[in-house]
Here is the input.
Amino acid sequence: MPIPILMPSLSPTMTEGNLVKWSKNIGDNIKPGDIIAEIETDKATMEIESIEEGKLEKIIFKEGTEGISVNSLIAVLSLPEDSSKDIDNLIKKYVPTKETTEEVKLKQDNLEDNTSELINKEEIREIVESKQEDHVLSTEYKENIIPKVISNDIGKDIPAANEENKIFASPLARRMAHINKIDLADVKGSGPKGRIVKSDIDKLTNNYSEINSNINVNNKLFKPNKKLKISSMRKTIAAKLSYSKSNVPHFYLTVECSVEKLMTARNDINIEADPENKISINDFIIKALANALQEVPEANCSWQNDHIIIYGNVDIGVAVAVEEGLYTPIIRNAENLGLQEISSLMKDYIIRAKSNKLSPEEYEGGNFTLSNLGMYGIDSFSAIINPPQSGIITTGAIKKIPLVTDKILNTYVMKCQLSGDHRVIDGVVGAKLLQSFKSFVENPAKMLL
Amino acid sequence: MSNYDLIVLGSGPGGYVAAIRAAQLGLKAAIIEKETLGGICLNWGCIPTKALLKASELNYTLSKLDDFGINVIKPKYNWSKIVSRTRKVASKLSTGVGHLLKKNKIDIIYGMGSIAGQGRVIVNNSKKNVLHESPNIIIATGARARTIPGIKYNEHFWSYKEAMISDKKPEKLLIIGAGAIGVEFASFYNDFGSDVTLIEMQKNILPSEDLEISDLAKTYFEKSGIKVFVSTKAQDFKSNGNGVSCLLKNSESIKKKHTFNKVIMAVGIEANVEDIGLENINLELDKGRIITDSCGATSEQGIYAIGDVTGPPWLAHKASHEGIRCVERIFDPNSTTNHRIIVPSCIYSRPQIASIGLTENGALEKGYKTKVGKFPLVGNGKSIAMGSSDGIVKTIFNKDNGELLGAHMIGTEVTELISNYSIAMQLEATEDDLFNVIFPHPTVSESIYESVLNAFDRGLHI
Here is the structure.
């Protein structure tokens, strides 16, 4: 029997994936462990390995296809004994039958020839969907396949104003958004009172209004805007942080830590260490936060709407900037790890994050996040919590300042800020956490205890 | 010297509306006018010509009364009364503008205004110069009729102005240029019985209109007795006691000598950018027009321009709209509301012509796939009852998304119908929305509905 290859679910939040690249061609013999394709999820680009053996018989979605639902058939492996009928049967199992295909084709023809059909909204949608889907399918399969999207989307109406969350948009804007698969909820309206109008959709599809441009617009005074595709990662960041900033009541606490001893300790360790074993300031800070969360366990928690979780372990996410956005790989059980272990984990994470090779289990979850913009000279900053976590600590640049005691001394300080979720952490708990964190940062020897 | 929040140069429909909007927003505004309040539109354009055309339409209607079973003894007209009535209409409206400005506490400063640098305007009145200051200056000085080099307006060569206040109807009249102004005067004089020849250099009359409408207009004008020549130029003018002789040269270079009593030059429009101190500021111009962004901002900080001085389409309603928009942007530089400018155009010839948006060819040139609906007024009950079923309503949709791209119509009173499309286009209606509109019966507006239906092969009365 031929073997179906389905769009894998590479992370708990993944509902669809983009087919970035086929690593094998039709006719190639595949062995278990061979990498057959690269899939982009909402966070990362991942390679998928075959667990079966066989010949790559059919490729269903071309390279570059976006938004393929999890568990959709993406390719078929065949065994020597499989007939072409076996293969067709397998494909039919995953996609609708031929008759339906012909119906759609008929409707498509209607669109070309008999335009009065346009009146029927249902049909427009079906036709539009099927037309858009066409380019997605590799040509040899066009006649056999009905895109799943059709059946899923029938009955799903063009977004209309509902009572709770009204979206004001012109009829044309609604239709264009529907055709271009744009969610009106993501569109900022520029019409009267924020109404979504044609040009707002044009901006997203990079199709500026011609009618508008022929009157009085001085091209010399205006430079054209650029339109960028939104990556899966950027979408995830946008959705997650918008949710957080609008739903999580943030409060902020700032403290200044002396890092004189920490810097001395780091120098002492690094002077003897091989280059690959050198410890960074950030590694100390991760450790300090892990210890602080262990000392103030009530801050190591999460708001879950109907209950609160107090975490047993301390899993710390560390923000790592990459070209398209950022990852927060997780140092799990950080309270049980030594500095050296944290440091080498982080080095590995950073290298793989930069090449989008982190696996979802390495960056999903976590109890608390650390973010450091000190290397950019930022003094201190207020970060947005990554839900369902309860907080994020940020660190700024280390600065030399005069310290007045009996005499004036130069000392190194660093500003740290906590953003806390006030639903689970009150000011005093936050303050205790920050105090504990400060004491570990200022007296790194305590981390040895 | 006085200080204002806004000084507007010119009190035409762009300028006075801008000043009123400024006053509504609480700005202290002044308006500078060198002649008469209301500008060309009120005094020498839109309004008095409509008054003239109403007279010629009535004269034409009288000739048709027999069709309705009414006999009248041959009516007479009093030419000077026709003209003087139009002057009264103009002056009534001009006085009205004065009241509006006063009501809104806008200072009217008569004289020739000239910008003396950023924020400074010098007004010259009877050799006295007065300086006024304002951080915001709107140039709304409008435009004037273009002349052909070597021809001066005189008793034989008329611009629109002379044509509007003639002391008697010319027997033989040549109109050079078949744009909106040319065809309106052609209709006016033709309906009073002048022998009218209308020539156009381009291949079609009303070159900016939809080709189909332009062709129909030519047919209707010719049917009404106007001689229409396209791809034709007039040259070798010779004045004599009774009028002018000239050669009309067509595209095959065949020349024919004609004589006329009067010649109306309607060969286009030039922006009024002279003597307003542009040399004192750093303003970018293109073909003699001031370059602005979509809110009237020029290349000079604090200097704005609206209306005809910024280029075509030369329409009063466009100027007023730009005036409002410009003032709102001055008042709130961060206002982000996105206005879509879709300017309808109306021509008051007989029959009337009205249009908005893209022509059919224009849409195709821009790469749209179109769906075009047409409905001839001969299928419209009201038109037949009124005895005026010449005309057509044409609607152009974007085939891909049902967007209304344009509408074009010719027929009796269609200028009153085009705003249906203005509203639909501004609100971004699609064909589905228009299918749901109920147009009252019996009205000419039903032909809009039919034209929309026809684009989707659903026409009921055709």
Summary: Chain B has three domains: 2-145+270-331, 157-267, 351-455. Residues 417 and 445 of chain B are 6 Å apart (CA to CA).
